[in-house]
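Recall from the previous chapter that SMILES is a line notation for molecules. Here it describes 2-acetamido-2-deoxy-beta-D-glucopyranose.
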Amino acid sequence: MLFVSCLFFVYFQLWVPVYCDTEQLGFFSGSKSPGQVAKETGSSSCGCDALKRDAGVDVGEELSPHLEDPAEKYSKAANEENVEHHGEQDIRSKMVLLKSSWFFMGTDNPGIPPDGEGPQRRVWVDSFYIEQHEVTNRQFQHFVNQTLYVTEAERFGDSFVFEELLTEELKSKILQAVAAAPWWLPVKGANWRHPEGPGSTISDRLDHPVLHVSWNDAQAYCKWAQRRLPTEAEWEYACRAGLQDRLYPWGNKLLPKGQHYANLWQGDFPTTNTADDGYIGTSPVMSFPANSFGLYDMVGNAWEWTADWWNVHHTPEDKHNPTGPATGTDRVKKGGSYMCHKSYCYRYRCAARSQNTPDSSASNLGFRCVVNPS
Ligand SMILES: *[C@@H]1O[C@H](CO)[C@@H](O)[C@H](O)[C@H]1NC(C)=O
Ligand SMILES: [Ca+2]
Ligand SMILES: [Ca+2]
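With both inputs in hand, we obtain:
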């Protein structure tokens, strides 16, 4: 197992430029034409030429694992408040209370160094509630029904869809493609209601994560729900679920006991998706085991927006409730998606991160909300 991980590590070190060219070009704003986007997304946009490898950082004393049970599952108080505000029909996600604690954020063994996964640093987060699963189509539909909110993909008139999910007829109509990531096609009329464009529907996917929502759309939903987007630190704390120096929310083995613990990609990307885990695209939320905090799909299924601006430079000092840079051009997303495979997007790890402009939307990007304890 160790041998295998080392191999991957070397592999990723060698192939860093490839990652930068593919994943980073994978998503962009529906407001821009692909040509415009292609010009704007050189290696600089993914932080490749700002590479910083802080190896062997001293992170201070060992954390005391005061993790009796930081996660208070389905806290009665929080979930009763929900009912008061949103009535008996409250369809917002149940929440889990995570108690304040130190944890180690980031890693000194980055899978993708230019993403700024390191150095590992000690971070304190105050208690917060987090939704147990990604916001679903049903929940987003309820929000839209109540507020008549129009998403950015709907206003721009298009969004990016993964080629494999499109019909041949639709594909033949689309002339534009992204040279560096040809599996992403801008599809007119693709949005959260029509994830693969006109003719596709969410009616049989109401319990799947909502897709094609921009950061701004996610903000709007969380605000309506009287919640907010998690900071990257909160998200990663929730992902790690009290485990230290582990790759995934459940440990270091991708397939414990041969079982799939997340909706990822099996096969050769982008041509063959064997769907060994049961799903070609998204899965209903909570289809895979929860982490020990009771949270589902923290890695895989849909990428999740966080509140922070993107930046790849981190310092090793202890931090309290970090909120990321004060300004920026991109927002941080975490957890990877059903499209992630180790050969292409080794980002289904808690320390992994990526970014998009706040108005971007795509067929593998969603979110979940958090709230402060009252
Ligand atoms: C939203 O409104 C549509 C149209 O009235 C309805 O079919 C759907 O069930 C509503 N969805 C939710 C979650 O309330
Ligand atoms: Ca899958
Ligand atoms: Ca996810």
